[in-house]
């Protein structure tokens, strides 16, 4: 079976503009074959063996990321956590996990994903988090409630654009992972922290290397 990320290409060179992608596009058959290839690899590449990950995310602006990072240090001390905080530039809300594999993602896949997401119509919106908590997997995170409805809407539209096949509603809990720790912290309120979400980013993560590469940046827009 072909590897989703096989035949390594340099995807870190500037990608062709979205207008060109939209004009050229991929046929419906081509997109179906690409989804089928990806679905097969997603099932056959165990996460423990993967070296590369692709996901769509919303990131805080630099000023807010720095503030979150500073407050994380305080929460880490306050709760006696020992996990290493994420770098400010790595803080994000994951909207759609494309998949894990071995090797560099091919330009064909990146362009197809960019084309699909470019069709999502949504204006910029405010994001605010008002609590911290631990998840069962050890992630210490920022969370919230009604103030995160914009993320829920964006995630649904993005998911529908990337995978339009009928299926039950996808479970989505908007959060920002701050660090990972074996100690569990119960949910508690904090002073609100937030930013205006203006774009969606396709991120290539080199697993185990604390390296994120932005492959595509797509501004939110109104129809």
Structure write-up:
By secondary structure, this protein is α+β, with helices and mostly antiparallel strands. It has a domain at 49-98 and 118-219: Cyclic phosphodiesterase (Cyclic Phosphodiesterase, Chain: A). It is built from 5 helices and 8 strands; from the N terminus they run H-H-E-H-E-H-E-E-H-E-E-E-E. It has helices at residues 18-24, 28-44, 62-78, 107-118, 149-162; strands spanning 52-58, 93-101, 125-134, 139-143, 176-180, 188-197, 199-206, 211-219. The protein has a 4-stranded antiparallel sheet with strand order 2-1-7-8. Strand 7 and strand 8 (211-219) form a beta hairpin. The longest helix has 17 residues, at 28-44. It is globular.
What structural keywords apply?
30% helix; 223 residues; four-stranded antiparallel beta sheet; Cyclic Phosphodiesterase, Chain: A; 8 strands; disordered N terminus; alpha+beta
Mean pLDDT: 81
For CATH, the homologous superfamily of the domain at 49-98 and 118-219 is named as Cyclic phosphodiesterase
Corresponding CATH architecture of the domain at 49-98 and 118-219:
Alpha-Beta Complex
Give the termini separation: 40 Å
Q: Which topology of the domain at 49-98 and 118-219 does CATH recognise?
A: Cyclic Phosphodiesterase, Chain: A
The major β-sheet equals:
4 strands, antiparallel
Low-confidence stretches: 1-44
Question: What is the percentage of strand-forming residues?
Answer: 25-35%
Strands of the widest sheet, in order across it, are 2-1-7-8
Beta strand count: 8
Radius of gyration: 18 Å
* Category by helix and strand content: alpha+beta
Mind telling me the CATH class of the domain at 49-98 and 118-219? Answer: Alpha Beta
The gross shape turns out to be: globular
The helix/strand series, from N terminus to C terminus, equals: HHEHEHEEHEEEE
């Amino acid at each position: 079976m072909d590897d989703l990320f096989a035949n390594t290409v340099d995807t870190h060179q500037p990608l062709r503009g979205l207008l060109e992608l939209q004009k050229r596009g991929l046929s419906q058959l081509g997109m179906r074959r690409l989804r089928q290839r990806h679905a097969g690899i997603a099932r056959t590449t165990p996460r423990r063996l993967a070296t590369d990950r692709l996901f769509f995310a919303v990131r805080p602006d630099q000023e807010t990321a720095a503030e979150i990072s500073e407050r994380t240090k305080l929460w880490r001390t306050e709760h006696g956590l020992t996990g290493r905080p994420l770098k400010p530039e790595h803080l994000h809300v994951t909207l759609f996990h494309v998949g894990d594999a071995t090797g560099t993602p091919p330009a064909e896949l990146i362009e197809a994903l960019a084309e699909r997401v470019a069709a999502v119509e949504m204006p910029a919106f405010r994001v605010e988090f008002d609590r911290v908590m631990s998840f069962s997997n050890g992630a210490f995170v920022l969370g919230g409630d009604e103030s995160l409805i914009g993320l829920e809407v964006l995630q649904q539209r993005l998911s529908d654009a990337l995978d339009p096949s009928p299926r039950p509603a996808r479970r989505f809990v908007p959060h920002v992972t701050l660090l990972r720790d074996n100690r569990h912290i119960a949910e508690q309120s904090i002073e609100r922290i937030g930013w205006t979400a203006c774009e969606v980013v396709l991120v290539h993560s080199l697993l185990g290397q604390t390296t994120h590469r932005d492959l595509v940046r797509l501004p939110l827009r109104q129809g």
